[in-house]
Amino acid sequence: MNAQAENKKIIFSGVQPTGVITLGNYLGAIKNWTKLQDDYNCLFCVVDMHSITVRQDPALLRKRARDLLTMYIAAGLDPEKNIMYYQSHVSAHAELSWILNCFTYMGELSRMTQFKEKSAKNGANINSGLFTYPVLMAADILLYQTDLVPVGHDQKQHLELAREIGTRFNNIYGDVFTIPEPYIAKVGAKIMSLQEPTKKMSKSDENPNGYISLLDDINVIKNKIKRAVTDSDREVTYSEHKPGVKNLIDIYACITGESIESCVDRFTGKGYGELKLEVAEAVVEELRPVQERFKDLQKNKDYIDQIVKKNGETANYLATKTLRKVQKKVGFPVRIR
Ligand code: ATP
Ligand code: LTN
Question: Which of 54, 65, 77, 212 is 20 to 30 A from 47 (CA-CA)?
């Protein structure tokens, strides 16, 4: 990252390798990253340490981590411009996370919506990692003196907590951390399930018809959109009362870059069938080249491994700088070289 020399602001974001990413992840996060990569110094992490809060098959997790990093590149992130790496390769994430745990209150963590949802879903395994997960996320971000964090709407609360923890630490020890700002796009920050449009689209949804995976076959994508739940009405309007229709318009607007108003004009007077057909066409045109690049890149494992190695080293160097400062501030003995 020679970006520091260029004095650009710093971006950090990540996705968990818990499955093939969905259209929600793509439109809410990764597509925005590609737009920001020229103007910022960016770190895009595969946050594998976050994934084990829920049981994972080891071989599958390893494969998914590599596939996710490959997908970052296939979606248009330039490995020469951005630092893309695996979280578990940079031990400073875990080390800072421990320290920040000691500056985070139980009450704050108990209020996190994602913890409440995930613990309700994983009743048999409510482990303490699930509870302290937002502290690890705060460490990810604060380690790199991040200015901006582009995420979907569901991460807003975690980001507010990261700001709170960083500010608390700075108030005690002086200006150690940059306090990050969220970057949440107006359209696309919350793509909903195609089957239950009041729930967010999620890659760990049990019903695959609820989400579009970036690697779904073109015909499968078309069928999933065709079968998307709308309502018994026939009129295309953009309203909270019609979450299924609103979601389809949001997807269309986000992909084409057209304003919501102009999309609504375009579809007014047309039936749901036509709306679905056009949305499906837009999604397919967007994802086809991504899928082709992914398949090509996937053949070249060495190329991906080299990127991870080189970028992991850079991330490690940057993270250690902040970590050492923090360790000194809290009073850990200084290392003699
Ligand atoms: P999981 O189902 O395993 O919890 P997820 O699909 O919710 O995963 P994450 O890895 O938690 O995905 O999220 C990666 C990024 O994608 C985050 O920035 C998150 O805010 C964004 N994101 C996730 N789901 C959506 C969605 N439905 N709409 C918009 N953005 C989303
Ligand atoms: N918690 C996020 C993933 C995540 C992240 C981060 C996002 C982990 N660390 C740092 C942005 C910045 C999620 O579940 N979507």
Answer: 212
Per-state percent for the chain, helix, strand, coil, to nearest 5: 60, 10, 35
**288-304: per-residue pLDDT in tens?**
999 999 999 999 999 99
Q: Which of 148, 156, 202 to mutate to test the pocket of ligand 1 (most atoms within 8 A of CB)?
A: 202
Q: 151 CB under 6 A from ligand 2?
A: yes
| Nearest bound ligand to the CA of residue 203 | 1
| CATH-assigned architecture of domain 10-184+301-330 | 3-Layer(aba) Sandwich (3.40)
CATH architecture of 208-295: Orthogonal Bundle (1.10)
How far apart CA 142 and CA 238 sit, in angstroms, is 38
Instruction: Please tell me the pTM assigned to this model.
Output: 0.95
Burial (Cβ within 10 Å: 0-12, 13-18, ≥19) of residue 54: middle
Residue 200 a catalytic site member: yes
Going from N- to C-terminal start, the domains of the chain cover: 10-184+301-330, 208-295
Predicted local distance difference test score (pLDDT) of residue 4: 53
